[in-house]
Amino acid sequence: MLRIPGSGFRLCDGVSRRSFLQVGGLALGGLSLPQLLQAEEQVPGGKSHKSVIMVFLTGGPPHQDMVDLKPEAPAEYRGEFSPIHSNVPGLDVCEHLPLMSQRMDRLAVIRTLVGSEGRHAAFQCLHGHPVLNQPPGGWPCFGSVISKLQGPLNREIPASISLQPRIGIQPWSDPGQPGFAGMKHAPYAPNATGTQDLVLEGMDMSKLNDRRALLDRMDHLRRTLDTNDAVDGMNTYYRQAFDILTSGRLATALDVEQEDPAVRERYGRGSKEPAGYGDAGWMRNEDFIVARRLIEAGARVVTLSFGRWDWHGQPHGTNFDNARDHLPALDQALTALLDDLRDRGMEDDVSVVVWGEFGRTPLINKRGGRDHWPSVGCALLAGGGMRTGQVIGATNARAEHPIQRPVHFQEIFGTLYHNLGLDVGNLTINDLTGRPQFLIDYGKYQPLPELV
Asked: Pfam families attached here (predicted)?
């Protein structure tokens, strides 16, 4: 389906939009799909290109109940779970992560993640920067940076795709903002619009080609009316949208029903029910499969969220009640993804990061929950050619703060950029004032030397 609005309008950013063609009804925040796509030539590639899968554990996972257990701490700190040995000597994990324990040689554990603003939001995990004191235009998210600097691998799959679900708490469902990279680099968010518009409803190819010809005739007029970057680049984005619609490649990648049933069982089915409480999040194990399928199809960055980890206690169940539900589901989905990447020859090219916006309080509250704890959290990294099978950092006896090797969010982002072949010490993107901005604060932070 195609439509051409007849009159102009002005968005809150002051950008004029006089007449534009919307293809397929695909939109993110009111912007058509072509505005989300790169304007670069198709390049050869396949499933083994460098890429990143980022798993956001919505709400803040309990580090001391997952990968930094303190069995010698007082009961009100150590909690209800026991550590088990992994296949890496000296690296113990929670008893509810048995599959992960058998693959710790393929994971790197960060026990001292610092730098959290303490906000209940996906922003810091997607952007790597704090919300406060942003440059003009705002920080672009990781996927938008990659879209800006590397472009799409092919014309049919956006460079950055966000599988964040639509949930009641908007900061958690944020797919990532393009910031000063520009709206054409915003992540494509299929869960924000559904995928039903990825097919040509009620239109055959001859009609679509008529619209393509109309687009060609509108090019000169559009450039005459308005020459700002957003409009000047429209032609290429529209053409890419036509490519997406006519190829069906993106729709196929998103369709998990086409996956081998045996593979789906290995990942687990998870649940679409609200995870924990409220209308926020769910444990959709199949999003891990979709992420892998999108990478194979040509995406460079895929983000997803999993569950709700904000466990303050009754009446919504204790921290430990919820962990007994969430941890096995994450254990199954994540390890299935790692095995899948290895089996398909993708392990060294696909970097995987799993984290949340902060950790949880070492002291268990009176409701059996753990509250917000920005002082220290945890992260898991795998693949990407990194040196895995190790723990980075150590906390004190009650998991309250780092006593060895604190790791900042930006160091992990620097590592991911490095894995994609980007030089964080030299590359910049101009903000809206024309001032060049580094991808991370390189004066303070660098890619983790322990991993790269």
From this structure: DUF1501
Strands 2-3 and 31-32: unpaired
Q: Give me the residues paired with residue 407 across strands.
A: 113
Beta pairing, strands 92-94 & 394-395: unpaired
pLDDT, one tens digit per residue, over 308-367 is: 999 999 888 999 999 999 999 999 999 999 999 999 999 999 999 999 999 999 999 999
CB atoms within 10 A of CB 6: 7
- pTM for this structure? 0.84
User: What CA–CA distances, in Å, run from 195 to 26, 179, 189, 222, 245?
Assistant: 8, 25, 10, 29, 11
Structure tokens of 394? 């150590």
Pairing assessment for the beta strands 9-10 and 16-17 based on DSSP bridges: antiparallel
CB 141 within 8 Å of CB 177: yes
Mean pLDDT value across the chain: 83
> What are residue 110's DSSP bridge partners?
379, 392
For residue 274, give every residue at least 6 positions away whose Cβ sits within 8 Å of its Cβ, in sequence order, or none.
280, 281, 282, 308
Nearest to 245 by CA among 157, 186, 175, 161: 157
Walk me through the domains of the chain, giving residue ranges and CATH numbers. Answer: 21-438 (3.40.720)
Query: In whole angstroms, what is the distance from residue 317 CA to residue 80 CA?
Result: 14
CB 3 within 8 A of CB 10: no
Q: Are strands 407-408 and 107-114 parallel, antiparallel or unpaired?
A: parallel
**Strand (E) or helix (H) holding 162:** strand 160-162
Question: What's the rounded Cα separation, in Å, for the pair 86 and 94?
Answer: 10
Map residue 421 onto helix, strand or coil.
coil
> What's the DSSP call for residue 184?
G
C-alpha distances in Å from residue 242, one per residue of 2, 22, 28, 185, 210: 11, 10, 17, 17, 12
Tokens of 134: 């942003």
Dist. CA 412–CA 390, nearest whole Å: 15
Q: Which letter does DSSP use for residue 304 in this model?
A: E
Task: Give the separation between CA 266 and CA 287, rounded to whole angstroms.
Answer: 13
